[in-house]
Amino acid sequence: HNTATMNFLRRRLSDSSFVANLPNGYMMDLQRPDNSTSSPVSPATERKHPQPPQPSHSSSTGTSIFSSISSAMKQTTQAAAGLIDHSASPTPPVAQKPKILLVIEAKYFQGKKVNGEFDIRVEQAEFSELNLAAYVTGGCMVDMQVMRNGTKVVRSFKPDFVLIRQHAYSMALGEDFRSLVIGLQYGGIHTVNSLYSIYNFCSKPWVFSQLIKIFNSLGPEKFPLVEQTFFPGHKQMVS
C-alpha cells in the first residue's frame, strides 16, 4: 500500500501544474524524515523564515571580498592595540644597543637609572679608576676598574658620551688626570659638559684670566673681582 502511494505521489509531483497549486510549506513537510511528527508550516512562518538562496558565483565573490576586508580590519585593530608582533616579519628591525653613559664622579649616580628614548647604561667611576686609549678612527676605549668578589678587575667599553662631575687636576700627589681629559677629546667622545671647560678649569689662574676679561667688559660695579697678582713660579714671587 505504501509503495503504491509513493508511486502515485511521484507521478503527481512530476506534474508542474500540480506542484504550483500546492500550499506553501507542503513540499518542505514531505521532505522531512518523519511526516507524522512534523508540524505544518504556516504561510506567515514561511515568510518570516525564507529559505536561503543557493550561492551563486557573484555571492561567493562578494563573500570573499567581505572576508578580506574583515581580515584587514582585524589586523589593523590588532596593530593599533599592539597585538601584532612585527618582529616576525621577514626583515625584523635591528635591536638598538643601549647607549653607554660614563659618569666620572664620586659615586653620586650609583644605582640610578636613566630612561628616555634610548636605553642608557650608566657606568660610573672616578678618574683614579680609569685608563683609556684613543684612536683617530676607532674612537675611545675606556678601561675601568671594578670590584668583583672583593677583587679588582678591569672591564673595557666604548662610551657614547661622558658626564664629568670631578675635578681633573689637583696639586695633591697623583691627582693630575689631564691626560684622561685629553684622551677623551682625542677620541671625539661627546660630553654633557664641554671638555674645553674641564681642561681649562684644571688651571685656576687660566680661569681667573677669563674672569678678568669679563671684569674689563662689565666694570668693577657689575662684576667685582678680588685683586690678585700672577707670577710664573715661586722664584719670581720671592724675588
From TrEMBL:
<dbReference type="InterPro" id="IPR001359">
    <property type="entry name" value="Synapsin"/>
</dbReference>
<protein>
    <submittedName>
        <fullName>Synapsin-3</fullName>
    </submittedName>
</protein>
<feature type="domain" description="Synapsin ATP-binding">
    <location>
        <begin position="193"/>
        <end position="238"/>
    </location>
</feature>
<dbReference type="InterPro" id="IPR019736">
    <property type="entry name" value="Synapsin_P_site"/>
</dbReference>
<feature type="domain" description="Synapsin pre-ATP-grasp">
    <location>
        <begin position="96"/>
        <end position="189"/>
    </location>
</feature>
<dbReference type="GO" id="GO:0007269">
    <property type="term" value="P:neurotransmitter secretion"/>
</dbReference>
<dbReference type="GO" id="GO:0005524">
    <property type="term" value="F:ATP binding"/>
</dbReference>
<keyword id="KW-0770">Synapse</keyword>
<dbReference type="InterPro" id="IPR013815">
    <property type="entry name" value="ATP_grasp_subdomain_1"/>
</dbReference>
<dbReference type="InterPro" id="IPR020897">
    <property type="entry name" value="Synapsin_pre-ATP-grasp_dom"/>
</dbReference>
<feature type="region of interest" description="Disordered">
    <location>
        <begin position="25"/>
        <end position="64"/>
    </location>
</feature>
<dbReference type="Pfam" id="PF02750">
    <property type="entry name" value="Synapsin_C"/>
</dbReference>
<dbReference type="InterPro" id="IPR016185">
    <property type="entry name" value="PreATP-grasp_dom_sf"/>
</dbReference>
<dbReference type="GO" id="GO:0030672">
    <property type="term" value="C:synaptic vesicle membrane"/>
</dbReference>
<feature type="compositionally biased region" description="Polar residues">
    <location>
        <begin position="33"/>
        <end position="42"/>
    </location>
</feature>
<comment type="similarity">
    <text>Belongs to the synapsin family.</text>
</comment>
<dbReference type="Pfam" id="PF10581">
    <property type="entry name" value="Synapsin_N"/>
</dbReference>
<keyword id="KW-0597">Phosphoprotein</keyword>
<dbReference type="InterPro" id="IPR020898">
    <property type="entry name" value="Synapsin_ATP-bd_dom"/>
</dbReference>
<dbReference type="Pfam" id="PF02078">
    <property type="entry name" value="Synapsin"/>
</dbReference>
